[in-house]
Design goal:
Layout (H helix, E strand, L loop, with lengths): L2 E5 L5 E5 L4 H10 L6 E5 L5 H12 L3 E5 L2 E5 L10 H6 L7 H8 L1 E5 L12 H9 L3 E5 L2 E5 L7 E3 L5 H11 L5 E5 L5 H12 L3 E3 L5 E5 L8 E3 L4 H13 L3 E5 L7 H9 L3 E5 L2 E5 L9 E3 L11 H9 L4 E5 L9 H7 L3 E5 L2 E5 L8 E3 L3 H13 L3 E5 L2 H4 L5 H6 L4 E5 L6
Parallel strand pairs: 2-14, 3-13, 9-10, 17-18, 21-22
Antiparallel strand pairs: 1-22, 1-23, 3-5, 4-5, 6-8, 7-8, 10-12, 11-12, 14-16, 15-16, 18-20, 19-20
Helix pairs in contact: 1-2, 1-7, 4-6, 5-6, 6-7, 8-10, 8-12, 10-12
The structure holds ligand EPZ.
The site of ligand EPZ has 24 residues, from helix 1, helix 5, helix 6 and helix 12.
Length: 422
């Protein structure tokens, strides 16, 4: 397995262009199945998760090319709606293929995606939503067989504003008969991007970004060309890395409105943030201040996907901060690794009590999930000495060549692939 080697202690500086959003591109690629023909999607990042999604679409019979950030996807030749278990297990978010496959083929067979390092990742809300639209769902072991001669609009209330469930229901409802309303819907920017994409294909969807989404089903959808929004989590990761290394970084191609909760927290920590259109400038010349209490919650509150990264900054802040994770029950695994680098963190249930220390020290650490891995890279950049981050395939799921991106900002970071012992 590849590893990253980082020589810490050097402030990041320079300018970086933010990649397209993984968590917008994935549902949009799945939604492309709703229209027969060739859809073109721009600003799609070159990531492991995108590769997995494209391989699943090819397995279903589509033709897919991903060149220079643009995906050209011909769904005309899609001939099956059964997603192989081996591919389902590679990426749990392939569960939101259910909606488009059910809407297009009238039936689909997928597999329980299973949990991951950050939590159980249940899919009950997805299944309840599809049943409300008229689907018959049978679970045989970990196989899920879903059938619907005709999907019909329904009033659906989500007991939790699940991002994936909101997306699955939107995609299935787009071709259902009649009106569907989704109340207590997720409000993330990626949901808004999916609505814009589906409407560009001829769907009639309103309300994404609020807690109530309305979908008026249409007979058919047509392929289109669409550009994906910038990745707010990658942008937020770079912003925290700039602050944690006491650097000065300019981010281009951002949507600052998608980052308002992080900007607010960083300013409370004493980080200088200047917003100018789609440009964000981040600077931190002095030791950051502790932030008394941050709680991760659904958008527009502080995102769970930036919790581990922010924690690194707080380990170096002046004072005690409290960071509470309420979305995923297993998303504090990076605490042990940060403690090995000299951080002073105590965990009680789902809250981390972080007492700032003067510095972190390089160590060999292991990425346990995508964002925890990114946090360990930030810690390595800020630490004194050398850090080796292992299991970095987790990081490659969401960050395009992270070592190249950070080297461009002056980081001393290299990727090492193991020499095959032939
Ligand atoms: C999406 O996951 C993102 N992934 C996650 O990003 C992100 O952390 C998460 O939303 C929350 O913002 C993609 O968009 C591909 P959820 P998703 O359904 O859709 C529970 C990253 O790092 N739940 O909002 O799986 C679930 O167990 C990834 O890029 C149910 O109980 O998130 C979890 O505790 C990680 N039943 C909570 O809701 C369900 O049917 C949030 O899940 C569905 C979810």
């Amino acid at each position: 397995m590849d590893k990253l080697v980082i020589e810490g202690g050097k402030p990041l500086s320079g300018t970086i262009v933010i990649q397209g959003a993984k968590n917008a591109a994935l549902p949009i690629l799945a939604a492309s199945l709703l229209a027969e023909g060739t859809t073109t999607i721009d600003h799609v990042p070159d990531l492991l998760d995108i590769d997995v999604m494209l391989n699943i679409l090819r397995e279903l019979g589509c033709r897919a090319e991903h060149v220079g950030g643009t995906v050209v996807l011909d769904t005309e030749t899609a001939h099956t709606s059964h997603v192989p278990e081996s591919l389902m297990r590679q990426m749990r978010s392939s569960i939101f293929l259910m909606g488009p496959l059910l809407a297009r083929f009238g039936e689909t067979q997928v597999y329980q995606p299973g949990g991951c390092a950050i939590g159980e990742r249940k899919i009950d809300l997805h299944l309840e939503g599809l049943k409300a639209l008229g689907a018959d769902i049978e679970e045989i072991g970990n196989r899920i067989i879903c059938r619907a001669d005709k999907l019909r609009g329904a009033d659906i209330h989500l007991s939790f504003p699940s991002v994936g469930a909101t997306e699955n229901i939107m995609m299935a409802a787009a071709l259902a008969e009649g009106r569907t309303t989704i109340s207590n819907a997720a409000r993330e920017p990626e949901i808004q991007d999916l609505q814009h994409f589906l409407n560009a294909m001829g769907a009639k969807i309103m309300g994404a970004g609020t807690d109530t989404i309305t979908v008026d089903g249409v007979q058919s959808l047509t392929p289109c060309r669409y550009k994906v929004i910038p990745d707010r989590i990658v942008a937020g990761t770079i912003m925290v890395a700039a602050a944690a290394t006491r650097g000065q970084v300019t981010l281009l191609n951002t949507q600052p409105a998608h980052l308002s909760s992080l900007i607010h927290v960083l300013r409370r920590a004493g980080v200088q943030i200047v917003v100018d259109g789609d440009i964000i400038k981040v600077g931190c010349a002095t030791r950051p201040k502790a932030v008394e209490r941050i709680v991760t919650s659904p958008y527009p509150a502080f995102p769970t996907d930036l919790q581990s990264q922010l924690m690194v900054l707080l380990t170096l802040a002046d004072g005690v901060s409290i960071l509470k994770e309420t979305i995923f029950e297993g998303r504090l695994k990076h605490v042990d690794e940060l403690s090995r680098m000299g951080a002073d963190i105590r965990v009680d249930m789902n809250a981390a009590f972080i007492r700032g220390v003067p510095r972190l020290y390089g160590a060999t650490v292991e990425a346990t999930d995508l964002r925890a891995g990114a946090a360990l890279v930030i810690a390595g950049l800020a630490a004194q000495g050398k850090t080796v981050v292992e299991q970095i395939h987790h990081i490659d799921r969401g960050y395009e060549k992270i070592e190249t991106m950070l080297s461009r900002l002056g980081a001393r970071i290299s990727r090492y692939a193991p020499v095959p012992n032939n």
